[in-house]
TrEMBL record:
Belongs to the FGGY kinase family. GO terms for biological process: glycerol catabolic process; glycerol-3-phosphate metabolic process. It comes from Sphingobacterium corticibacter. Sn-glycerol 3-phosphate binds at residues 12, 82-83, 134, 243. Residues 260-448 form the Carbohydrate kinase FGGY C-terminal domain. Pathway: Polyol metabolism; glycerol degradation via glycerol kinase pathway; sn-glycerol 3-phosphate from glycerol: step 1/1. It catalyses: glycerol + ATP = sn-glycerol 3-phosphate + ADP + H(+). The keyword Acetylation does not apply. This is Glycerol kinase. GO terms for cellular component: cytosol.
Length: 501
């Protein structure tokens, strides 16, 4: 057997390639950030060609760095930022428009129209999702409506739509494969999560021709091989999952009731609900966790749009820190936020509010407020948002969640994790291997190709690095009350600002 699995992790802010050995140990990682484009307020785009070139660059670099040959790679697993929408020309392989990123709010008005027409229940019942510009459907519609001739070309079968997984596979196979996996499909708002197929009624509602859609596959099977023109060797592509589902699998949350929270650009909390698609009563979404063989596993998800990104804003927008990790030393200069609250609704608010028009707000600043207070308030905002999602999830689950497995770039921050545990009154568990997103895709690919025998074998590869217990003598009641007041004020401001006179 060849010794390595290559996991491709195409995230919102960076492309990564990770080599994993049979013990589940990471041999090497290569990572490259790429440009975030903000052409208008509420719009977020990526250049699909840069997504691909940065991804290919890190694959090549991790192979070179670790001094292996591509022929040593047993299989490839792919995981990706979800919902982000790319439409390309099947003949030239060139995108017809930039990638519209999951955070993009340009279709918020259209989503409101759909809600006013009373379509929320239909969409919810079929897709498990709430109507929101977050999901791919309205982004595809926007591209087909706005790009000259796109709709006609789509109808004629000349165009292809894909989330980032499809785009990478198309390029890795030199245009041979146009497919996606069921977890990514479940984020489009076009996929029926019960019958597990594209929903013709929804396609008609959004005016999206079926001809542009990828074929939907399971999350763990051999889909095809990379083209020798791209990676010199034909390597089986054998695992695909959206990054949050991949992290759930990588955290080995494989039993019903297990929960993980990933702190990346946003925060995404998922609870494995087994073979049942549970409908949330608290504005969480129902999604597909994975399909292995014929078995579909579902999850409840709470998506927070801005988490680690608030730290990037401190770095790139305000220039208060040079590197993301510097937020810790800055925040540690003060014992508390001095009554400052930041609601980082830069791209609207996701779960459990779903307010596309909300925008970021800062409350409680005084003449004495410093950069350190702002830094601390930014970190705390990540934890407060997670608190609100966990509350919703506990209500849906009908029981308290005592332990939260965490991962993602921002979990290197000990100040954040301690504050989080205290706020939740629950133990926060960080695994030794925090690359859980990449590990999920690696496991899915390894299971499909016999690299690992079964899930039980994979399960042994998860181990705890740190258990962070809540600070017993801190009462968070007052802070939570003030946070919730800040969130309410943010929502009220959005309503007043957008009120039609
Ligand atoms: N020490 C830190 N404290 C808080 N946030 C951090 C820290 N280091 C990185 N981050 C944040 O983590 C995010 C990157 O995490 P990652 O899991 O790679 O995200 P993504 O997959 O969304 O690109 C960035 O938004 C960055 O600002
Ligand atoms: O790339 P991440 O880690 O920010 O994850 C983005 C999510 O998949 C969006 O739904």
């Amino acid at each position: 057997m060849k010794p390595y699995i290559l996991s491709i992790d195409q995230g919102t802010t960076s492309s990564r390639a990770i080599l994993v050995d049979h013990d589940g140990k990471i041999i090497d990682i290569a990572q490259q950030e790429f440009e975030q484009l903000f052409p208008q307020s509420g719009w977020v785009e990526h250049d699909p060609m840069e997504i691909w070139s940065s991804q290919l660059a890190v694959i090549t670099s991790v192979i070179a760095k670790s001094k292996i040959r591509s022929a040593d790679i047993h299989a490839i697993g792919i995981t990706n930022q979800r919902e982000t929408t790319i439409v390309w020309d099947r003949k030239t392989g060139k995108p017809i428009y930039p990638a519209i990123v999951w955070q993009d709010r340009r279709t918020a008005d259209y989503c409101d129209e759909l809600k006013e027409k009373g379509l929320e229940d239909t969409v919810r019942d079929k897709t498990g999702l709430l109507i929101d510009s977050y999901f791919s459907a309205t982004k595809i519609k926007w591209i087909l409506d706005e790009v000259d001739g796109a709709l006609e070309r789509a109808k004629a079968g000349e165009l292809a739509f894909g989330t980032v997984d499809s785009w990478l596979i198309w390029n890795l196979t030199n245009g041979e494969l146009h497919l996606t996996d069921i977890t990514n499909a479940s984020r489009t708002m076009l996929f029926n999560i019960h019958s597990c197929e594209w929903d013709s009624e929804l396609l008609e509602l959004f005016g999206i021709p079926e001809a542009i859609l990828p074929e939907v596959k399971s999350s763990s099977e051999i889909y095809g091989e990379t083209s020798v023109d791209v990676l010199k060797t034909a390597i089986p592509i054998a695992g695909i999952a959206g990054d949050q589902q991949s992290a759930l699998f990588g955290q080995l949350c494989i039993e019903k009731g297990m929960v993980k929270n990933t702190y990346g650009t946003g925060c995404f909390m998922l609870m494995n609900t087994g073979s049942k698609a549970i409908k949330s009563e608290h504005k969480l979404v129902t999604t597909i966790a994975w399909k292995i063989g014929d078995e579909v596993t579902y999850a409840l998800e709470g998506s927070v749009f801005i988490a680690g990104a608030v730290v990037q804003w401190l770095r790139d927008g305000l220039g208060l820190i040079k590197k993301s990790k510097d937020v810790t030393s800055l925040a540690k200069k003060v014992a508390d936020t001095g009554g400052v609250y930041i609601v980082p609704a830069f791209a609207g608010l996701g779960a459990p509010h779903w307010d596309a028009r909300a925008r970021g707000s800062v409350y409680g600043i005084t003449r004495g407020t410093t950069d350190a207070h702002l830094a601390r308030a930014c970190l705390e905002s990540i934890a407060f948002q997670t608190y609100d999602v966990l509350e919703a999830m506990q209500h849906d689950a009908g029981h308290a969640i005592e332990e939260l497995r965490v991962d993602g770039g921002a979990t290197s921050n000990s100040v954040l994790l301690k504050f989080q545990a205290t706020l939740l009154g629950a133990t926060v568990v960080r695994p030794e291997n925090t690359e859980t997103t990449a590990m999920g895709a690696a496991y899915l690919a390894g299971l499909a190709t016999g690299f690992w025998k079964d899930i039980a074998e994979v399960q042994q590869k998860w181990s705890v690095d740190k258990r962070i217990e809540p600070e017993k003598d801190i009462d968070s009641t007052a802070a939570l009350k003030e946070w919730h007041a800040a969130v309410e004020a943010t929502k009220v401001w959005a309503t007043l600002k957008n009120k039609k006179s």
